Amino acid sequence: MSAPSIRRSLLIRCGLGISLLLCLLSASIYLLVEKSLYGELDDSIQQTAAILSNQVELENDSITYEWQEGLGTNQSLVEGALFQFWNDGNGSTTRSPALKWRDLPKFSGVDGAPLLRNIVLSDGHHARAVGLRVYPFLLEDEAEAMRKRGTLVDPKSLPQTLVVARDVEPSHRALERLRWILIGGSILTLGLGYLLIERAIKASLKPIHQLSDQVQDRAEHQLDQTLAIPEDLPAELTGLASNFNLLLSRVAIIRQREKDFIRHAAHELRTPIAGLRATTDLALSQKRDADAYAAHLAACQKSAMELGELVKRLSALARIGQPASPAVLEAFDTTPLLRECWQPFATRAETLGIPTTEPTSQPLPVMADPALLRIILNNLFDNAVSYTSDRGRIMIRSLRENGTVMISVTNSVDDPPDDLDRLFEPLFRRESSRHDATSHLGIGLTLSLEAARAMGTTIRATQLDGEICFTLTLQEGPGRNRSSS
Amino acid sequence: MRLLVIEDHEALREGLCQFLREAGYLVDSESGGDEGLWAAQGSEYDLVLLDLMLPGIDGLSILRRLRAQGNPIHILVISARDGLDDRLEALDAGADDYLVKPFPLSEALARVRAMLRRSFGKKSPVIREGDLEVDPMRRSVSRAGRPIELTALEYRLLEYLAYRTGEVVSRTEIWEHVFEDGSGGSSNAVDVYVSYLRKKLNYEGARELIHTRRGQGYILQADKS
């Protein structure tokens, strides 16, 4: 299921908003005009109804409609007027002359209260009408006469229903025209509004499409290149684009790291492969005796073992810092690990006659990844033994300071490099004064630095008085406070 | 011909050196940059095979230092770096050729032969002087169409004189470029081997090819005026 687009969502919401606004506006206009047109009319009808309701008289025990008796005085009232009386007692009715034989609808409000209503006349014209209940009035003289006759009749017992109407066909038609005008105008306004809003939305969303096109048009080799952010990019999109570029730059770093790794791995693999190839080429270049072949096979075996070690280290380098195998920091005493890692190198150092200062035996709690720390220590110790100058020494020290534990490995060197940072570059090898240094692969310190970074720390190299010192800083773990060693 | 191989990888260095020795060249080797530079600064080598990534002074620095000193020695770079930039950098630094690892030893040998030809101004793979033909690829010698059997040392001596046809070659040069170090030869070993060579090259009615320049050395030339 696809989520609604911003464009569609904006169109629907704007359309609904405009429609509601137009409906309210149109209805208001219509009602205002209607009220204006019918207001005076209603007053007039009610006034007429009021006059006519006073012209029903109880006289000689019967109802007399004075408007019928005094046509002369009520000429202006009756002429052309549309009204009708119903005698609710006996069901008789009387109409105004203008109605002729036609009836008006009979109605009134609750308890006979006046009620205004739109009605349709028998000729099909629309009319405005008021219906109400009226009672005949009784003159004092007539009341006296009735008492004398002994036939006193209560006017309340002779209710009449009066409906007064006024033909409003022209006004009705005008209102009808107004209604259509308002409906048509609203629809037209809504359509035009939709069109304009659509254009405005399209123009507003153009930068998004441009950015989208930039992303879509990327060739494979440009996948990690940052987007060109136009100067006129809306502020709402600038943050998104900048963050996207930030993401791309991270991707670029990772890709560059992968490229570097592949390049370095290829470089590193080429030389032992070349050695292997040279040995086989040489062995096969002419017929040789068994001893010669055995020597060549031994050389091949040595190259294969070297390749195996190299692949192992390259794999470790590739794994470190990858999301699949993040560093797991745990609290542990690093002293046993230090001594365990140092043990084989101590034997080598002793064989080579290198004096050493052994690691501390006091507890040294740290927060670190033991597997990564082991890689770092092995590399630092291996380098120290391999590169220590003649009559040089090796010192392994640890120091607690401000919540950190610093482990340093120092050894004497003949010719310290000018740029110590280069030591951490892949494939960089230090000048050696000992034969076994030439077998180093040049990625040990790179591996160590990557391992330290994976634990959120670093290794730095310093040199002083012909000695080079590698210091690893670790976060101190929970444990007793002890002095430095 | 004396070659110098500067390569820190033991298996490659040993394999390459032995292959070149079996091809008839005198080969010395160094595994470190500093030792390699010191050796290359000597004048006795005809060609250097140089790795770029070395302990100590790296190969590019060796190249630049040799060229800065005006050293004309021919240098074939052998490197694991296969990028165009790497090759351009090495060639612009003064390398004569560039070979990417891993490579067949036969290709390395062919390039060595080609570079030696270029260094002595020869175009043809077979060196001809009069009726003498020296084929460095087959390590064969013939005169007037007749094959001549030579020992390894005699062949090296003839090949070196043939590459330098028309030039007077001093006894010291012959000693440095043809005789192995520590071969224990006496001071007149060069003269002795030249005489052996003359005997093998000459036949009845043939004109002398190797001439003595008293106090200077020897010259190989068919038409000596």
What does this structure look like?
Chain A: This is histidine kinase. Chain A: Its main location: membrane. Chain A: It is found in: Membrane. The complex is a heterodimer of chains A (485) and B (225). With 485 residues, chain A is α+β, with helices and mostly antiparallel strands. Chain A has ten helices and 14 strands. Chain A has helices at 6-53, 66-69, 75-78, 140-149, 169-216, 235-284, 290-319, 334-352, 370-387, 444-454; strands at residues 56-59, 62-65, 82-87, 93-95, 115-120, 126-134, 160-167, 330-333, 356-357, 365-368, 394-401, 404-412, 459-464, 467-476. In chain A, α1 runs antiparallel to α5 (169-216) and α8 (334-352) runs parallel beside α9 (370-387). In chain B, α2 packs parallel to α3. Chain B is 39% helix and 21% strand. In chain B, a hairpin with a 2-residue loop joins β6 (127-129) and β7. The longest helix of chain B has 15 residues, at 105-119. Chain B contains eight helices and eleven strands. The radius of gyration of chain B is 18 Å and the shape is elongated. Chain B is of the alpha/beta class and 225 residues long. The mean pLDDT of chain B is 89. Classes of the chains: A alpha+beta (485), B alpha/beta (225). The A-B interface holds A 263, 266-279, 281-282, 285-286, 299, 302-303, 306, 427, 429-432, 437-439, 442 and B 8-16, 18-19, 22, 31-34, 51, 53-57, 78, 80-83, 100-106.
Biggest sheet, spatial arrangement of strands of chain B: 2-1-3-4-5
If helices are DSSP runs of H or I spanning 4 or more residues, what is the number of helices of chain A? 10
Q: Termini separation of chain B (Å)?
A: 28 Å
Strand percentage of chain B, roughly?
Answer: 15-25%
The secondary-structure class of chain A comes to: alpha+beta
EC number (chain A): 2.7.13.3
Keywords (chain A): ATP-binding, Kinase, Membrane, Nucleotide-binding, Phosphoprotein, Transferase, Transmembrane, Transmembrane helix, Two-component regulatory system
Catalytic activity (chain A): ATP + protein L-histidine = ADP + protein N-phospho-L-histidine
Enzyme class (chain A): transferase
